[in-house]
């Protein structure tokens, strides 16, 4: 594995751990934010490793997923687009106050984020 790939993976793992910690601590908006960061970093690691290029300096997960050269399902790409929308929404107090108030409100995002993260990690480990 390339050194630069590993650098991104270290950050991705830290953000994943942060997301889990925030989820357990009922800090749901920050949980969603950290899951986005974990996915963004692991996708950028994958772009470096699989596509052999520097990742775009963007935050749109579905767009980054397409750059990886991995075979994502259409549903995964839709889920990544939705996680990206949450990444932008959590920055606004009005959204935080109404959208990220309980476990049930973030559960689909948490489940999808974990699933995609683990699948991408599995693809990287095959290299």
Give a description of the structure.
The protein is mainly α and about 130 residues long. It has one domain: Four Helix Bundle (Hemerythrin (Met), subunit A), CATH 1.20.120. It has helices spanning about 5-25, 30-50, 60-65, 75-90, 95-100, 105-125. The protein is globular. The chain starts with a helix and ends with a helix. The mean pLDDT is about 95.
Strands, helices and their partners?
Blueprint: H1 3-24, H2 28-51, H3 61-67, H4 74-89, H5 93-99, H6 103-125
Radius of gyration: 14 Å
The CATH architecture: Up-down Bundle
Number of domains: 1
CATH C-level class is Mainly Alpha
**C-alpha termini separation:** 7 Å
Q: What is the CATH superfamily classification?
A: Nucleotidyltransferases  domain 2
Instruction: List the secondary-structure elements in sequence, H or E.
Output: HHHHHH
Strand content: under 5%
Q: Report the count of strand segments.
A: 0
Mean pLDDT: 95
Summed up, the helix count is 6
Low-confidence stretches: none
Question: Shape, please?
Answer: globular
Structural class call reads: mainly alpha
Helix share of residues? over 70%
Features:
6 helices; 0% strand; mainly alpha; Four Helix Bundle (Hemerythrin (Met), subunit A); 127 residues
Provide a short characterization of the protein structure:
With 127 residues, this protein is mostly helical.
